[in-house]
Amino acid sequence: MTKKWILNLVKFLLVAGIFVYLYRAGQFDVAKLAKVFDSPFLFISAMLLMLLGMMLAVERWRLLIRIQNIHISYWRATQLTFIGFFFSFVLPGAVSGDLVKAYYLVRGQSQKTGPLMSIFFDRLMGLYTIILIAACAILFSFIAEIVSAQPGILSQPYARPLVLFVLVLFGGLTVLAAVFMNKRVGGALMERLIAKMPFSAVIDRIYHAVHQHGSSPALTLKALLMSIVSQIPGYAGLWCLAGIFGTQALALGDFLIALPICFLVNSIPLAPGGLGVGEVGFRAVLLLVGFQHGAELAFLFHAALFIIAIGVGGLIYAFSNVSASQLKPKKP
Questions:
Q1: Are strands 328-329 and 70-71 parallel, antiparallel or unpaired?
Q2: Could you tell me which residue, 82 or 27, shows the higher pLDDT?
Q3: Is a pLDDT exceeding 60 seen at residue 328?
Q4: What is d(CA 182, CA 180) in angstroms, rounded to the nearest whole number?
């Protein structure tokens, strides 16, 4: 327990140190946050859009759970999702919420690997669709530059590493998905590799749980489409938050290319919700596309998430009776 408190104290001091550094370096202007009071409608709209995106993402997870032959109601899935989201803010580390969510999901279940993998795969699918949207934005920018004959983000030397990173990440994730989910692509190779690994029995169960998503292409495709749909309100919410500081110099296509990298940095589990690390990442990445208020945008993003987590997630946790008895595995 003492080690845990020391670790949490170190994390808190590190996050505080990040904010002090950003402030003293002139990269985080607290006074600019007061702009939110000039545009409360934009902030409230951003929160509602982000909440809508989370509600749509619940359906994505339900589809992934169905692949593991577990059927729960939309309301029950919403409870588990927002309770996990609530604990991701009140417990140290971004993974804590997933652990709480997993606990309620597998409690009382004889087979735990599949349900646990549905949570992990839900995270991966969310990441993949974020990168997919960024790749589509790059394609759109490329076509727009050709049609208009005007230079855009793809013509800027300072932005090329960002574009290259997105494309490489998208290609790598696509190849990994093909290898892990389709036995005809990499099944024999994966089974040989797994057989030589330590804890091969455990890894084999995980591999087959992942492969089960490839064995249910219709549900997996529906989940992927729902994931894309669920991303749209979230992006719109962040665009509203950016609008508080003015988006005249920020092209929407550039914004869609830069945000995935911001989200990747923000997901580093140093502090609840990526606080501190996200401010550094948002500022550094959004500067590449000409947006000067990345740190302030990240702070408002974290504030909106905190209000949703504590307000919605906290209320659901306080007034719901979460029980694994609500889960109904499908009989073979």
A1: antiparallel
A2: 82
A3: no
A4: 6
* Rounded Cα–Cα distance for residues 104 and 319 (Å): 16
Token pair listed for 267: 């997901």
pTM > 0.70: yes or no: yes
Angle between helix 113-148 and helix 160-181 axes, rounded to 10 deg: 140
Q: Which residue has the tokens 């991303």?
A: 231
CB 227 within 8 A of CB 59: no
Four-point Cα dihedral 152, 45, 261, 162, nearest 10: 10
How far is Cα 141 from Cα 289, in angstroms, rounded to an integer? 13
What pLDDT shows up at residue 194?
67
Bridge partner residues of 329 (DSSP): 70
Mean pLDDT rounded to a whole number for the chain: 79
Q: What are the counts of helices (DSSP H) followed by strands (DSSP E) for the chain?
A: 13, 2
CA 64/CA 85 separation, integer angstroms: 18
Q: Which helix (H) or strand (E) holds 71?
A: strand 70-71
**Token pair recorded at residue 167:** 């494309």
CA nearest to 34, candidates 294, 245, 273: 245
Spatial separation of the C-alpha atoms in residues 116 and 104, rounded to whole Å: 11
Q: Tell me the CB-side half-sphere exposure of residue 5, using CA atoms within 13 A.
A: 2
**What CA–CA distance (Å, rounded) separates 223 from 230?**
10
In a 3-state reduction of DSSP, which class is residue 329?
strand
Residue 236 has a pLDDT of: 92
Q: 330, 69 in Cβ contact below 8 A?
A: yes
The alpha carbon of 48 is separated from its chain's Cα centroid by a whole number of angstroms, namely 17
Per-residue confidence at 96, pLDDT binned at 50, 70, 90? low
Using alpha carbons only, how large is the chain's radius of gyration in Å? 21
Q: What is the pLDDT of residues 254-297, one digit of tens each?
A: 888 888 888 888 877 666 667 778 888 888 888 877 888 888 99
Of 189-198, 227-236, 274-283, where does the model show the most confidence?
227-236
